[in-house]
Amino acid sequence: TTKFTSALDIPVEFVAKNVKLRGKLHHVTEKGLEVEHIPISVPLVTSIQRKWQSGGLLLVRLAGVELTPSGVAWLQRELKPRQVIWFQLLGREDSALECLVLLNKGRFLSVCLNEEILREGLGRAARIEGLHHDSRLYWKLHRRLLRAELKALKKSKGIWKEESYSERIRHRISSNKFVQTLKQFVSW
Taxonomically, which superkingdom (predicted)? Predict the structure, then answer.
């Protein structure tokens, strides 16, 4: 029932047990998502606690994802302020939380934003900070993220998009030394 206003407020046991928390999104920045934690509400207790709870935002990073600038722009377009998200704690680094971020799409369907970013080719799979390499959870999540990245690679999406044959030929011709010299001669 406690509202967490800082990453350091979250108990170590919560991070160790990979607890899922709920929050309202405020901003998407290059550093991550700024989220206001929504505690579990107990009718009488919650109304009393609200009077003493201070405001503060948690910095939530997408675990195992190295975002590109186009990935940040995509998140800013897709996520709306005050939207409720779930984040599963995987690790804590200084004032930031490494998390799997889940977004509800309808009543029974939720989407993992970490995988969705990789599926769209808007980032690269990276090491999942906060989890031990020898844990089963680490390898399970890492495998999921690599599969999502492979889908983008196969479909040539985002950073994996390749130039078409005609674009490659045009680029080779324009960068040819003889053609560049000829262009200078003609413009002279």
Answer: Eukaryota
**Can you give the pTM of this predicted structure?**
0.75
Question: Interhelix angle for 177-187 vs 165-174, to 10°?
Answer: 60
Among candidates 103, 96, 101, 86, which has minimal Cα distance to 130? 96
Domains and CATH numbers, the chain: 7-155 (2.40.50.90)
**Are residues 68 and 126 in contact, defined by beta-carbon separation less than 8 angstroms?**
no
Please name the amino acid found at residue 56.
G
Closest CA to 31 of 57, 74, 62, 8: 62
Angle (nearest 5°) at CA 147 between 160 and 76 = 60
pLDDT tens-digit map of 134-171? 889 899 999 999 999 999 999 888 888 877 778 778 88
Closest CA to 69 of 28, 114, 30, 25: 30
End-to-end CA distance of the chain: 76
Q: How far is the C-alpha of 139 from the C-alpha of 143, rounded, in Å?
A: 6
Q: Which residues contact 110 (CB under 8 A, 6 or more apart)?
A: 86, 102, 103, 104
pLDDT band at 39, cuts 50/70/90?
confident
In contact, 1 and 38? CB cutoff 8 Å: no
Check residue 118 and give left, alpha or beta (phi > 0: left; psi -120 to 50: alpha).
alpha
Paired tokens of 120: 């769209």
